[in-house]
Amino acid sequence: MHVFDYSFLDTGLLPAEMVTLTSTIAAFNAISNERKEQNKSVYTELEKIARIQSVKGSNAIEGIVTTDVRIKAIVNGNSAPLNHSEREIAGYRDALDEIHRGFELMPINESTILHLHQVMTSAAGYDQSGQYKAEDNLIMEVDMRGRRRVRFEPVSAAQTGEAMEQYGADRLTVPVELNEREIRDSGIHGEMIVYGYLPMMISAQCIRKTTLGCSGKQEIMWLKDRKEMRFPVVNQCRFCYNTIYNSAPLSLLGLSASVEGLGPKALRLNFTVEEPAAAGEILDAFFEEYALGEKAAEPSVLKNQFTRGHFKRGVE
To answer: For strand 191-196 and strand 266-270, is the pairing parallel, antiparallel, or unpaired?
Structure first.
């Protein structure tokens, strides 16, 4: 396990050259602020160029590329993304914009990190947006001859929670892909999702636009399959794509003993397409079982139509 402990900096002495360097940076920063006030138009243009170069360079590292013309149009908000790579670029742009606008008020904690991850990846349709990874991964490098080598080995999925706690994360979210045994083995004692419609897939083609025309606002539609199962579809107008949710919500009502045996720090109920009255009925049932310790009746709005997800069967 990597140890991210820099507390020694609080008591140790810094090298003289480091103190000199940081002092020089602080001095240049003060001069830069003065010049920025005197030359606002110039700095505004420089900031636009810097945003474009930052988005281009950071995405190129991940192998996500497009033309300079398209990057400029996407970063400046003059064009919607046309494909998966451009949606990734747009997501990075949005996360960068949030940091630029409010970095002084952004604490470095789990909420901020997961929020930025969700902003950065949701446009591209990743199922685990806003969640820590459930599988290990490696950062690979391929040279001009096609030879591959490991450039960087990130913290494993099993150790992510512990690593983030060292960084100061206040709470982790347990991946919904894990079953009860895997959650126990992972040692993650974070926030557990015990209710909610889970994303099933992302459609790059907007169903609302195709069938009824673009409304320009987020709304809920429904898909029906040959078995008459209805799937809620939420259109994300900013990026012109749809999130298609499972036909039945995840519900761990009636499994409080198993859930509490895993020691979660918090429980989460995700409400997405429910009417207010239905959400209230579901919330009351979970409160009765998980908070009061009483046997709760199944909410009538669920009509016995729910899934236990992977909790009782694991990843297939």
So the answer is: parallel
Q: Which residues contact 274 (CB under 8 A, 6 or more apart)?
A: 282, 301
pTM: 0.54
pLDDT (tens place) for every residue of the chain, 316 residues total: 566 666 666 666 677 787 788 888 888 777 777 777 788 788 788 888 888 888 888 888 777 888 889 988 888 888 888 888 888 888 888 888 888 777 777 777 777 888 888 888 877 877 777 787 878 888 887 888 888 888 888 888 878 877 777 666 666 788 888 888 888 887 777 888 999 998 887 776 788 888 888 888 888 888 888 888 889 988 877 667 788 889 899 999 999 999 999 988 889 999 988 999 999 999 999 999 999 988 888 888 888 789 998 888 754 4
User: 223: alpha, beta or left, given left = phi > 0 and alpha = psi -120 to 50?
Assistant: beta
CA 90 to CA 96: how far, in whole Å? 10
Q: Are 158 and 187 within 8 A, CB to CB?
A: yes
- What DSSP line would sit under 112-152, residue for residue? HHHHHHHHHHHTTT-TTTTS--SS---EEEE-TT--EEEEE
DSSP class per residue in 209-253: HHHT---SS--EEEEE-TT--EEEEEEETTTTEEEEEPSS-EE-T
